[in-house]
Amino acid sequence: MTTELLSFSFLLLLLIIIIITPLFSTSSTMSGFTIQLIHKDSLLHPTTNLSASHLTRLLAKASHSLSRSQALSSPSTILSPVIPHNADHLMKFSIGTPPVPVLAVMDTGSDLTWLRCLPCSDCLTRSVHLFNPFLSSTYQSLPPNSPKCKQFDPNTSPYTPTCSYKYCYGDGSFSSGFLSTETFTFESTKGEPISIPEITFGCGHNNSPSFDAELFGLAGLGGMSYSLISQLSPETGKRFSYCLSPFQDNTSTSFMSFGNKAIVTGKNVVSTPLVAKEDKTFYFVTLEGISVGGRMVDARGTGEGNMFIDSGTTVSLIDSEVFEKLGDLITEVVRLDWKMDAGNTFKCYETRRRELFPDITFHFAGGADVVLEPLNAFTEPSEDGLVCLAMQATNGTGIFGNMAQQNLHIGYDIVGRNVAFAATKCAELGKQL
Question: Domain named Peptidase A1: which ranges (predicted)?
Answer without folding.
Answer: 89-422
